[in-house]
Amino acid sequence: MMFKRSIVILFCILALVIVMGSNSVKAEEEEKEKELAIDVLPGDVLFNVNNMKPGDWAPRTITVQNNGIKDFTYQMTLRNDGEEKLFNELLLEINDSKSVLYEGKLADFTKLSPRDLSTSKQEELKLTVIFPEHLGNEFQGLNAEFSILFTAEGKTSQLAEVSVDGMIGSGNSQTQAFLPNTATGIFNLLLFGAVLLISGIFILLYKRWKKVSKNYN
User: Fold this and answer.
1) DSSP secondary structure string, 129-172?
2) CB neighbours (10 Å) of residue 22?
3) What is the pLDDT of residues 129-170, one digit of tens each?
4) Most buried among 84, 91, 181, 183, by the most CB within 10 A?
């Protein structure tokens, strides 16, 4: 009887140790997650433009936040997630509150220089995607899809990462082309205007001649 009771007590103690150990590991993992926490606003999609044309630009502001309990250094990188044709031609400008951080092609951007962000602090970055004016009709109907990644690194080499998506579309290829041939239309308008002008002058001269003739009679 005593042996069975001892077995039950031992089993209960073992179960209690396992539960407490599991909770301790879980708490430790949650604490580590809190140590390094980088977030961005907006959190899912930064660019979603469906009908850009040559000469258009799309400015956006993204807020980088340190919501953890440790200071960190973060970097921003960019990854192409779609076709390369339009992606390789789009331009990108990145600014903080003081200066220009990058200015060049979207495809040539590698990463920002590491930036420090203290706990409970945030900073805004302004990103502008530009559709170059010289791009022709061969870019009509194309899309560029990409991801912008923010990676935070703590002093103990702990890493945390978050990303937002971007999509730039150049419209439907079935719609009007970027560079329509408007020369014929302009010529027709000029010709029509000239005809109206000449007709008006002729009517004015005719009325004046008729008035003069009536006075003589």
Assistant:
1) EE--TT--GGGTT-EEEEEEEEEEE-TT--EEEEEEEEEEEB--
2) 10
3) 999 999 999 999 999 999 999 999 998 878 999 999 999 999
4) 91
Measured between alpha carbons, how far is 92 from 176 in angstroms, rounded to an integer?
A: 26
* Partners of 104 in the β-ladder: 92
Residues forming a β-bridge with 125: 62
For residue 216, give the 3-state DSSP assignment: helix
Taking a C-beta distance cutoff of 8 angstroms, is the pair 168, 129 a contact?
yes
Phi then psi for 201, rounded to 5 degrees? -65, -40
Q: Which fold, 37-169?
A: Immunoglobulin-like (2.60.40)
**pTM for this entry:** 0.66
Tokens of 104: 């060049």
- Under a CB-based contact definition with an 8 Å cutoff, are residues 178 and 55 in contact? no
Coil, strand or helix at 49? strand
Residue with tokens 């010529």: 187
